[in-house]
Amino acid sequence: MACCERGGKGRLAKLYKDFGDVREDNFKKWWTEGGRGATLFSENVPELTLRELSDKSQWDEAWTADEVLVVAIPLTSSRRYIQSRLIRLLDKRHHAEKPGRKKSNLAQSTASYPLERNYTIENLQKTLQVYDKYLQVKDEKPKVPLWKIGEQMRLVRTAMTSDDISLNEQQDRRNVMGASVKRYIANAEKLIANTAKGRFPLTKK
User: Fold this and answer.
1) What is the pTM for the complete model shown?
2) DSSP character at residue 107
3) How is residue 200 annotated by DSSP?
4) Mean pLDDT of residues grouped by 10 in the chain (205 residues)?
5) Both 197 and 159 in a single domain?
6) What backbone torsions phi and psi does residue 198 show, to the nearest 5 degrees?
7) CA separation (Å) from 200 to 8, 113, 164, 188, 191?
């Protein structure tokens, strides 16, 4: 946020140039503005089409056995034989999945900012909301306990306190709520630190 306030100056200048001012609450506007989301996170996958190779120079060194099946078809054989063999080969090798990058192919990603893992938008939003709330109150005196932040946001409904439960039960619930808030804050700080390194969304050090 400090980088945004300085107009993109500082050690995160490269990140600011790519992501722009992220203080805007309208995620859809941020994502679609100038095609930003697609530019940053989309994969530049070359289109593969079924075709005949008439020369060895048409072979692409980037092809892998998982993505391309190369066969030699003897044109002297009958059409029925060729078709039956192709069907058997396809049954053995063809395992179509939904388009997109598989987790195991992260190192081969062509995106400017490869997605380290699949997070739901809801989870990321909740993490940001908790962190924003924490930043708002972290310097207040007296210090606001983490469990109170969670209660204000109704973060864990089963850990909400009330006047009709025992003091021990209240303390147990506050411990659960506080631990949950602490976990969200820790994840948010890791997300921010890793995003600055071009790794998003990642909650590992």
Assistant:
1) 0.54
2) G
3) B
4) 67 76 72 79 72 87 84 94 94 70 55 68 86 92 94 94 93 96 92 74 69
5) yes
6) 85, 20
7) 19, 7, 44, 11, 7
